[in-house]
Design a protein that fits this description.
mainly beta
Length: 620
């Protein structure tokens, strides 16, 4: 019955979406290719004047991918592999950017770094993120410790949550329902649900916003088992934000967040059921004071992370807290020099047998020079002052040169930057193998590339990167944390293309080649391709066809502790969207892995086969 109902709903929806209107749209709203870039300098600069190939996932792209997770979206971008994003919901095994590991990629939400200080990997669990309350995502690839501090070695993922409406009250409601099945069990039973609701507005000088989202999936086993015993994943997130505009030049906002998710792993890879509960509670504030050609900014947050797990090895609980304060002054000199002076404070706390903590106090400076003859320079430095190991100095030099053409520009860019990764509390003070004498990991990244742009029609870019990693924190024969003497080198090429030949057709493509030397480079594909074709069927209906190729890579089989080469695989998807009420109500149909490709992403764990979902997005 469930299967028959789903097929009927799908047919009705597709027919309505494809044949509701047949008039061609005269002007399709497309993403402007000369968009403003903020993340690599914290100033609103035209892309032409930026020395980086920054990736931006806009609000429009997020709306076109309703029902997908943050990990799935980021995984379509060049230079990044989110292992586990193609498996059962709740199975994310790491963010691998430019041949790095999860600890080398930093996540920032509304200007504040997020990282669980009680976790072994020190990376942020992106399963905590919900696309329902995200306005945009910017991704800086390469070393960015000068502006963003520890862990910003291979990528910085900057999340901006949705702004409050300028109207007195507005609401948004969205819902997605779909299948959740593997390649062998194509029963088309409904097993995936996602919902979101938000209300926001502005009353004179006061603004407010409240949102809630949840996600639930069942029907799939996390591990590959003959019985395919289902493991449930559930996610809940609530956000509240309040703001007040004291004057034209002074504003203040405060916010609170609570996010929880529960996930299971069945007994196939263990002798007992495995369950985990993860919760995050965060309160913060953001304020800015504008004066003349400058402004002072403060971003601060206090976050509590709690992880409870039950596994073969028994029950365990970890509790970590951190306080982050980032204060900086922005000032523009002669409309050419964009300067930042700031101080970043971080305190991490965790409970092991005893309570442990450390503090970081980092002064930093950054200068961007934008000339009137095409030359641009982004450079800066940071002095990392750590309560345990002392000082660490990092810097970046990022020149670029733009040559104007009749309809656009050609930009040459280069970068040399250093970054650092602080040893975490477990490695310094944990109950097993701790070493308080650890030094920070050091990274050096060299980049060079070119970008070609023609008046919102075409953008092509190609970039080479080379990263050296030393003082990596590992283990000795007694499983004591040490700084490993061997160095790791990662290099590669990233190619991106965005083509809009007409108002109704678009093509976005990227290719990444990555090579890592110095270890077994598990779960990092050497070749990766993403392709998206967009077509405006009529004024209210559009569709996009996607293709993703993931090349061969190595994974470790932990039942034999041997490395295994995994075969390459390709996935095809189709998305159809139709506006029932322009600017008010949209419905969509989404199909993933349409060819039902059978592949292995992580040895022993399930991947998703062909799946179909549908939903709506309503603005009031």
């Amino acid at each position: 019955m469930k299967k028959r109902n789903l097929i009927l709903c799908t047919a009705v929806f597709a027919g309505q979406g494809l044949f509701a209107q047949q008039t061609q749209q005269d002007s399709l709203e497309i993403q402007q290719l000369d968009e403003v870039v903020v993340s690599d300098s914290r100033f609103a600069l035209k892309r032409e004047n930026s020395g980086k190939t920054v990736i931006k996932i806009t609000a429009e792209e997020l709306e076109r991918n309703q029902g997908r997770t943050v990990g799935e979206l980021i995984n379509t971008k060049s230079g990044i592999e989110i292992t586990g994003s193609r498996g059962r919901d709740g199975s994310v095994f790491g963010v691998f950017a430019r041949g790095g590991r999860g600890r080398q990629a930093l996540v920032i939400i509304d200007g504040v770094r997020v990282s669980d200080p009680a976790s072994f990997s020190q990376e942020y669990d992106i399963r905590l993120l919900s696309t329902a309350n995200i306005e945009s995502i910017e991704i800086i690839k390469g070393a960015a410790s000068t502006l963003y501090g520890t862990n910003a070695a291979t990528a910085v993922i900057l999340i901006t949550t949705k702004k409050e409406s300028s109207d007195k009250i507005t609401g948004n409601f969205q819902s997605t329902i779909g299948t959740n099945q593997n390649q062998d069990d194509q029963n088309y039973n409904l097993g995936s649900f996602a919902n979101g609701a938000s209300i926001s507005g502005t009353l004179e000088k006061f603004s407010y916003g409240v949102d809630f989202s949840n996600r639930y999936s069942s029907g799939l086993s996390a591990a590959v088992t003959p019985q395919n015993e289902e493991d449930v994943f559930s996610h809940f997130a609530t956000n509240i934000k309040l703001g007040y505009q004291f004057s034209e030049n002074f504003e203040l906002s405060v916010y609170g967040n609570q996010t929880k998710f529960n996930t299971e792993f069945d007994a196939a890879l263990a002798e007992a059921p495995n369950r985990a509960k993860v919760s995050q509670e965060r309160v913060g504030l953001s304020t800015s004071i504008v004066y003349g050609k400058g402004s002072v900014h403060l971003n601060a947050a206090y976050t509590d992370y709690l992880n409870e797990s039950v596994s073969t090895f028994g029950e365990s609980t970890s509790d970590g807290k951190n306080l982050v304060l980032d204060v900086y002054n922005k000032y523009v000199i002669a409309d050419k020099w964009h300067t930042i002076l700031g101080v970043n404070y971080l305190k991490d706390e965790a409970v092991f047998t005893n309570e442990a903590d450390f503090t970081i106090l980092d002064p930093y400076a950054n200068v961007v020079y934008v000339s009137d003859f095409g030359f641009n320079l982004n450079t800066g430095a940071r002095l990392n002052t750590h309560s345990e190991y002392g000082n660490q100095f990092v810097y970046n030099v990022n020149p670029s040169y733009s040559i104007s053409t009749e309809n656009g520009y050609i930009k040459l860019l280069g970068s040399y930057a250093t970054s650092y990764i602080t040893p975490n509390l477990i490695q310094l003070f944990g109950d097993f193998g701790a070493n308080p004498d650890l030094e920070p990991e050091e990274n050096r990244t060299l980049e060079g590339g070119v970008e070609y742009y023609i008046s919102n029609k075409l953008r092509l870019s190609s970039l080479y990167f080379n990263r050296n990693e030393k003082n990596t924190i590992g283990f000795d024969q007694n499983f004591t944390s040490i700084n490993v003497a061997d160095e790791i080198d990662a290099s590669g090429v990233e190619v991106e293309a965005s083509w809009n030949p007409s108002n109704v057709f678009s093509l976005d493509a990227n290719y990444t080649f990555t090579e890592r030397k110095g270890d077994n480079a598990i779960r990092i594909p050497k070749h990766k391709v993403n392709l998206a074709l967009g077509y405006q069927v009529c004024e209210t209906t559009n569709l996009s066809l996607t293709y993703a190729y993931t090349g061969q890579r190595v994974d470790t089989d932990f039942t034999t502790f041997s490395d295994v080469s995994l075969e390459a695989f390709s996935l095809v998807g189709l998305y159809v969207e139709h506006q029932l009420i322009p600017q008010k109500l949209k419905i969509f149909l989404n199909g993933t892995n349409l060819l039902n490709e059978d592949f292995v992403e992580v040895i022993g764990f399930t991947t998703r086969g062909r799946n179909i979902s549908a939903g709506f997005n309503l603005n009031l």
